[in-house]
């Protein structure tokens, strides 16, 4: 999937993947897509819940080995 | 400014002593709804940490002044952040050291009683997950039943008591938690027993736990006798220890009974379950003290934190032992069952030795409550 920006949050523990995602999102335009890479397993449920509560659209989650990839469209 | 940590042990003491506590749980809503720190005198607020990143002002007004406040998250990181933010707003709050993972792994040893010819029986209460393990000690020897994954706790405890672990039993192949039995046996040279009917796919050597097996510990010869009691699994076996205690595994709990579906055969095993509960157990002495492998709700804990009740009392009070109609019993234990425990298939495979996940993965697999009962 094509992303407008990629955020590498690998190796970061909770809450940092979401803190960084949120910061990145603030600088983006509505409709743009951010790709996030993370290794914290808890990010899967939290990113889903965060996107929902923030009005963003979680387009896809992919697991490749230890790395979780998220694509979120800014709402 | 550093904020205070509260350990899982301190929280466990508060729960057992029914002390007041206010928990601000900052995990996501689903995780909180699925599994949380339970206690009779705990108040809760669940606000995910990601809704507090701009500031904690909105929750400050909802926090009580007169109660200790504990911020809880999955692994600790977010709760430290939120506790710091609260501190900056002038609110005194601690965070749970190690988060819900530490809570899940904490074991509280509680002495259940003395053995007749000398010796002691301990129950290890895994308060965050509701698992119960046992260690009988007599004359420098110990036997362990249904040990949980945290093998070091059992090894250290036996060492403190100056006891050599001789026998390690699992009442059945567990589906809700990873057994520490094999690891303890390997570390100590003890014999590891499993019911053969549950162990058909097991890939390591074990001793057969069969009906009528008797072992003794110590010179005082504390007897441990096996009683075949299938139903939760086809191999499920109970123990009578010192003619005083009945370890029921996952067949009979204080306020519920075992579910027959976790190995996939509810319809086949419901008859066994009924037979074990309504015939085999009914023949045993009412004075036996029932010690199950789980508790489901905090109300099942006695005041000292132990989980134990006379068999005769359970025959009077436990709903699952008082369903006369066989069809009604069948329906209760096969329909409307609670969700199955997290990752229960992988947990069974791990307990069979078929897979060996890293410790971190094992922790993740065990997240959540045990869910081994039907009520």
Automatic annotation (TrEMBL), chain A:
Pfam families in alphabetical order: TusA
Domain UPF0033 stretches: 7-31
SUPFAM superfamilies (alphabetical): SirA-like
Similarity-based family: Belongs to the sulfur carrier protein TusA family.
PANTHER family: SULFUR CARRIER PROTEIN YEDF-RELATED
Protein name per the record: UPF0033 domain-containing protein
Species the sequence originates in: Planococcus halotolerans
From TrEMBL, chain B:
Any one GO molecular function term: sulfur dioxygenase activity
Transmembrane segments: none
Domain of life of the organism encoding this protein: Bacteria
Keyword presence, Lipid biosynthesis: no
Family annotation (Pfam families): Lactamase_B, Rhodanese
Keywords linked to the UniProt accession: Hydrolase
InterPro entries in UniProt: Metallo-B-lactamas (IPR001279), Mito_Persulfide_Diox (IPR051682), POD-like_MBL-fold (IPR044528), Rhodanese-like_dom (IPR001763), Rhodanese-like_dom_sf (IPR036873), RibonucZ/Hydroxyglut_hydro (IPR036866)
Rhodanese domain segment(s): 17-112
GO biological process: glutathione metabolic process; hydrogen sulfide metabolic process
Designated name of the protein: MBL fold metallo-hydrolase
Organism: Planococcus halotolerans
């Amino acid at each position: 999937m094509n992303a407008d920006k990629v955020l590498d949050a690998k190796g970061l523990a909770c809450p940092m993947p979401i803190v960084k995602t949120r910061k990145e999102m603030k600088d983006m335009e509505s409709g743009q897509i951010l790709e996030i890479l993370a290794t914290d397993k808890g990010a899967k449920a939290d990113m889903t819940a965060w996107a929902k509560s923030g009005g963003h659209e979680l387009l896809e989650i992919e697991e490749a080995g230890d790395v979780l990839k998220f694509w979120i469209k800014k709402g | 400014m550093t904020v205070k940590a509260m350990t899982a042990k301190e929280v466990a003491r508060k729960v057992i002593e029914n002390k007041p506590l206010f928990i601000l749980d900052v995990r996501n809503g689903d995780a909180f709804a699925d599994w949380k720190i339970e206690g009779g005198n705990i108040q809760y607020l669940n606000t995910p940490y990601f809704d507090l990143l701009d500031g904690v002002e909105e929750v400050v007004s909802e926090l009580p002044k007169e109660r200790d406040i504990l911020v809880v998250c999955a692994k600790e990181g977010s709760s430290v952040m939120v506790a710091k933010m609260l501190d900056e707003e002038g609110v005194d709050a601690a965070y749970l050291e190690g988060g819900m993972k530490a809570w899940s792994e904490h074991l509280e040893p509680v002495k259940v009683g003395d053995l007749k010819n000398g010796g002691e029986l301990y129950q290890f209460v895994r308060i965050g997950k509701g698992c119960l393990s046992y260690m009988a000690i007599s004359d420098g020897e110990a036997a362990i039943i249904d040990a949980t994954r945290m093998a070091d706790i059992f090894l250290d405890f036996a060492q403190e008591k100056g006891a050599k672990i001789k026998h390690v039993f699992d009442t059945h192949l567990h589906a809700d938690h990873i057994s520490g039995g094999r690891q303890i046996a390997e570390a100590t040279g003890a014999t590891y027993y499993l019911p053969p009917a549950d162990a058909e796919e097991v890939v390591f050597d074990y001793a057969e736990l069969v009906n009528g097996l008797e072992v003794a510990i110590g010179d005082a010869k504390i007897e441990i006798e096996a009683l075949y009691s299938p139903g939760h699994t086809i191999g499920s076996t109970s123990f009578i220890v010192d003619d005083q205690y009945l370890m029921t595994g996952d067949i009979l709990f204080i306020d519920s009974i075992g579910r027959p579906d976790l190995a996939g055969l509810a319809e086949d095993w419901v008859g066994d379950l009924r037979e074990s509960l309504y015939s085999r157990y009914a023949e045993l002495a009412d004075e036996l003290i029932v010690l199950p492998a789980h508790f489901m709700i905090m109300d099942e804990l006695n005041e000292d934190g132990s989980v134990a009740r006379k068999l005769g009392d359970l025959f009077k009070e436990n709903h699952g032992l008082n369903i006369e109609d066989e069809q009604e019993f069948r329906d209760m234990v096969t329909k409307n069952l609670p969700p199955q425990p997290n990752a229960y298939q992988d947990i069974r495979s791990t307990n069979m030795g078929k897979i060996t996940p890293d410790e971190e993965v094992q922790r993740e697999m065990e997240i959540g409550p045990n869910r081994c009962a039907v009520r």
